[in-house]
């Protein structure tokens, strides 16, 4: 919806071509789950007793509290729940909307019966297997570039902009930029356990003010949780 409104406003202003930042998060490491992947790596060094205690504590964290604190608690809970798995499962859980059992519980019985034993993580598991020797972050980038980028973000951006007769250009997905970004090691993209898109921020430092470079990520989300608890709950 946000993308639709931006395109509509641009068209009304006489602008027919927009530049989009699509792709930067996937190739330069801009999502919270990329940081969460690094946190999982740090947890690998914990003694098994301490790790099990942390994972067990995750179930006690409330997941329905509203506001920023609620969002933070949900992220912590998701991280600790992901840490339960072995091999590729933690990475897949970080990329999932919700654990598979929770998703199934939200479906109508007829839909669950039709799905049978379908595993929603199977395709992601196969993609991660293709880059098994790579760094954990690189494998997440690969999985997203093969799935999340074309199937969701590029898809809705194209439809949202073209609905108003506006064309969105994606310079971060230029072949030369893409080749450069994919050849960079993850340590240049993620700094410590907090900073994302490090190399991109540093490259833009001569042209952008500090408050822009340090600005927290702001996604194009919708208040789905509020809708489901409020006016759309009966529906």
Structural class: mainly alpha
Based on Cα principal axes, name the global outline.
globular
Rg calculated over all Cα atoms: 20 Å
Largest sheet: 2 strands, parallel
Q: Give the terminus-to-terminus CA distance.
A: 21 Å
Structural domain count: 1
Polypeptide structure, described:
57% of the residues lie in helices and 3% in strands. The chain has 15 helices and two strands. It has helices at 2-12, 24-28, 32-43, 48-58, 67-82, 89-95, 100-105, 109-115, 122-129, 136-146, 148-162, 175-182, 198-204, 210-213, 224-229; strands at 17-19, 167-169. Helix 1 runs parallel beside helix 11 and helix 3 packs antiparallel against helix 6. The longest helix has 16 residues, at 67-82. It is globular.
Descriptive key words:
two-stranded parallel ribbon, globular, 235 residues, 15 helices
Topology:
Blueprint: H1 2-12, E1 17-19, H2 24-28, H3 32-43, H4 48-58, H5 67-82, H6 89-95, H7 100-105, H8 109-115, H9 122-129, H10 136-146, H11 148-162, E2 167-169, H12 175-182, H13 198-204, H14 210-213, H15 224-229
Parallel strand pairs: 1-2
Helix pairs in contact: 1-11, 3-6, 3-10, 4-5, 5-6, 10-11
Give the structure's gist in a few sentences.
This protein is mainly α and 235 residues long. It contains 15 helices and 2 strands.
């Amino acid at each position: 919806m946000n993308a639709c409104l931006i395109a509509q406003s641009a068209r009304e202003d006489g602008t027919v071509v927009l530049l989009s930042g699509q792709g930067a998060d996937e190739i330069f490491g801009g999502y919270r789950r990329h940081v969460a992947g690094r946190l999982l790596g740090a947890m690998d060094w914990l003694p098994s007793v301490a790790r099990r205690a942390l994972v067990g504590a995750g179930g006690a964290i409330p997941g329905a509290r509203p506001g920023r604190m609620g969002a933070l608690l949900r992220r912590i809970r998701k991280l600790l729940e992901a840490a339960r798995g072995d091999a590729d499962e933690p990475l897949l859980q970080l990329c999932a909307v919700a654990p598979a059992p929770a998703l199934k519980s939200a479906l109508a019985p007829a839909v669950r019966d039709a799905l049978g034993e379908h595993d929603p993580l199977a395709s992601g598991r196969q993609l991660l297997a293709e880059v098994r020797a790579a760094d954990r972050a690189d494998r997440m980038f690969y999985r997203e570039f093969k799935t999340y980028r074309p199937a969701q973000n590029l898809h809705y951006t194209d439809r949202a902009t073209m609905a108003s007769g506006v064309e969105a250009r994606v310079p971060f997905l230029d072949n030369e930029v893409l080749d450069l970004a994919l050849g960079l090691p993850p340590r240049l993209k993620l700094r410590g356990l907090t900073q994302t898109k490090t190399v991109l921020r540093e490259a833009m430092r001569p042209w952008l003010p500090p408050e822009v470079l340090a600005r927290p990520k702001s996604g194009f989300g919708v208040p789905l949780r509020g809708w489901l608890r409020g006016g759309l709950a009966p529906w």
